[in-house]
# Entry
Amino acid sequence: MKVTFLGTAGLVPDVGLKVTGKRGQLSMMIDDDYLLEVGDGALRNLNAYGADLNAVKRILISHLHSDHFIGIVHVLFDMMNVRKRSEPLEIIGPVGVEKATRGLMSLCELPVANDETRGYEIRFKELGSSEDFDDTRTVRGDHPSEAHAYRIHRDNKVLFYNGESAFTKEVMELARGADLFISTVVVLEPHSFHNSPEDVGRAATEAGVKRVAVVHWPTEFEEKRNEFKQLIQKYYDGEVFVPDDFTSFEV
Ligand SMILES: [Zn+2]
Ligand SMILES: [Zn+2]
# Structure
């Protein structure tokens, strides 16, 4: 299983940095068929990477905060208008993902909003508190917006992704023994509902995971990547990656 980090930034990707535009908002590909998160500008990074959008079968969203979701409208439009997609597409996410996606398409007055003329079917799946389907398991976490964590099991390897939830008991159970543990980081210091690098280090050790990758760190921390790693490694002695956009890992 290969994961490609297409965008690694959080809500504010560019402000105050000399390397403006270097990192896009969060988006990752699993092999070539799952798209995990679609932050703003996801289409740009998919195209820059050379992704085959017709190979994408499933889009997985952790929660509806814009930096994880709002890029979906251009991805869906591109699938219709440029790729001439005909195969169905699944969109999986929290309760409300269907209404939010349809709302965005309609508000933007894009023809992709029309089920009759889009050319491909969109099948929505709204997640309950825990789900198990195909190669994917999910649990609902704890975040101001309903957030889900994902565990994808493929080729005897497990990828775990925590989309911004606190490390609750259920989230930790889902992460257990993962080959790659991907977590968002939003703050350097402990925070009431956002994970710090130290939280990630503690959780990775507790869950007994093999490797850690952190995404979604604020761009103003660009100069502090080593500090990030060190804070995680205070509590976790495995390998830690702070990936750039367009980096791939074999899980
Ligand atoms: Zn976020
Ligand atoms: Zn959020």
Remarks:
- The first strand starts at residue 2 and ends at 7.
- Residues 2-242 form a domain with the Metallo-beta-lactamase; Chain A fold (CATH 3.60.15.10).
- Residues 51 and 245 are 14 Å apart (CA to CA).
